[in-house]
Design a protein that fits this description.
Blueprint: H1 4-16, H2 20-30, E1 31-39, E2 42-45, H3 46-60, E3 64-75, E4 78-87, E5 94-102, E6 108-117
Parallel strand pairs: 1-6
Antiparallel strand pairs: 1-2, 3-4, 4-5, 5-6
Length: about 120
């Protein structure tokens, strides 16, 4: 049985990992090799594509952190959760929600990301 709350925490940790090698290793543990990530700004497949999207977000928002918001809602092999992105010591101006699908091996096979709140100036 998958611990969806823990999997969401691992997922968020990947978005915050700034060490390239550690991030790539974490992606390999959490994501299936042929996994797909889709949001309004990206549509990538595979570990390298996912790593590039994460690196791009870190480059656009240096020093900001992703934080899991609330509990994870899950059934069968899918789950959804909300997150926020902002300065480590301040209010988060960006909020989103993701829906994820887990494969038989417990790793992510698909994540669909949604931006729920994005200020005009970001």
């Amino acid at each position: 049985m998958t611990d969806f709350q823990q999997l969401a925490a691992y997922y968020i940790a990947i978005w915050n990992e700034t060490d390239v090698e550690a991030r790539q290793a974490a992606i390999g543990r959490v994501w299936a090799a042929d996994a797909r990530y889709v949001d309004p700004l990206a549509d990538v497949t595979g570990h390298d594509g996912i790593a590039a999207v994460v690196a791009g977000a870190q480059g656009q928002f240096p020093g900001w952190q992703f934080r899991l918001l609330g509990a994870v809602d899950a059934h069968h092999e899918q789950f959804r959760f909300s997150w926020e992105l902002g300065p480590a010591d301040g209010e988060a101006p960006i909020v989103g929600s993701d829906v994820a699908v887990v494969g038989a091996d417990g790793r992510l096979t698909l994540v669909l990301g949604f931006l729920d709140k994005v200020p005009a100036q970001v």
